[in-house]
Amino acid sequence: MNMHVSKECIDGCLKANQAAQRELFDALLPYLNAICRRYLNNTSLRHDVLQDSFITIFDKIAQYNAERGAIHSWCSRIVINNCLKQNNRSNRFFEFNAVKHERSVAAEVEGAMNEEDLVQFLRQMPEKFYEVFMLFVVEGFSHDEIAEMLGISTELSRKRLARARAWINEKPSGLSTLVGDVNYIIS
Fold first, then answer.
1. CA proximity to 62, closest of 14, 3, 134
2. Domain boundary residue, one of 61, 93, 125
3. What pTM value is reported for the model?
4. Residues 82 and 113 in one domain
């Protein structure tokens, strides 16, 4: 996936140049779409969240600082925040009770687990643990950054990560080992 975005493209976006905005959109869409799939409870809202995110990106691109990191990292934070906001909005309207479908774990352990299977497995953990786990392990945010994003304390972020890891370790033997290197599997 090519996420290289030139300085000229960013400069063009600062000037609201539509060609530059399209270039940025095309470069980042696959990456940001994958983030939405990982974080949204209701993935049918993915297009809405992406649209809102790109509007925010283009409106606030002047706040991007290349010295603090790559443009895709800055944009991913906007998308993750929008996903979390959408999840919170959805949770206010109805209580989400995930129905756990029993699946043959042995078949998953024996064969290679693809990204979609892994995400589905991880989504079975309590939502609060899942959010912190994904933000820390997959996205690489610090506990301080996670605490700020989720509006919780740094200590609570650490506790939720520990509980997420414990949840994974409680799963049948072999499965927790398979998910152990989740940062490598989900990229």
1. 14
2. 93
3. 0.64
4. no
